[in-house]
Amino acid sequence: MTLLAFTDEQMALLNAKEYHSIRQVILDAMAKSDFAGISFRFRDINPDTAEHIVKCLAGLSFKALDLIDTHLNDAALLVLLNGLDGQNFETLDLSYNAFTPIGYQALFQFLQKNRSVTSLSLKRHDMVTAQLDVFVDDIPKTNLHILDLSDNYLNDTDLLRVAYSAKNAHLTTLDVGNNLSTEKGMTPFAEALLNSAVVHMDVATSHFSEVAKLALKETCLFNTLLGHLRDDDPSLLFKQQSVTILWRRDLERKAVSAQVNDDLHVQVDLIAAIRKCAS
User: Fold this and answer.
1) Is residue 219 situated within a structural domain?
2) Most CB contacts within 10 A, which of 20, 63, 159, 205?
3) Backbone angles phi, psi at 105, to 5 degrees
């Protein structure tokens, strides 16, 4: 799938209010089978440029909107969110930007209302605790399935709060790599996500040891198996304490033996043990 990319050359057309030229390029791209969305790789999106983008996209159908590294500030973001309200798309990539708490609050209010958006990237936002505080409790109120919070300045306590929030959300994929997390904080983080929908966690670029990565991998495996069992019997409810005890035992065994087997076809014993955790 291909994103149609616009650069600073096209931004001059937008700022000149030549909307029809940009819209025609988008319409031509939409006619192609591999069209997935639109990427505005402008050097600087200010409120005026944001308004032009909104007018250009009005009524158009696309899956993804890429606004990576465009120096978006709160004012421009608010214009974009107001203009995109009610417009169906699935992916919003805001990587390499940064907002104040006001911007993040507006973003998550938008996501709560616009539930077609299932994927959000806030990678490399220089995010710290004060910014996370604004939206962490609102994650379950959105319809996000994929959330990227990598390359920020979130510490162990911050990420544990993300995990507890994600546990009650629709998230299936969570990326928290390259934050200020420590080796000590990763196991509680992984444990907090047990019995949630999260089955993919990307920490490949982080400094964690193999033991810490194993804890995250073990959580994804358990959640995958729990999901399969629920698919077979939607009435199944799993006791959190029982699942946690089993997870700890399996994690310890694998850490000692250095044997990790994720193949669902050979997880018969583990599946049987997990099933016993059902109430």
Assistant:
1) no
2) 159
3) -60, -45
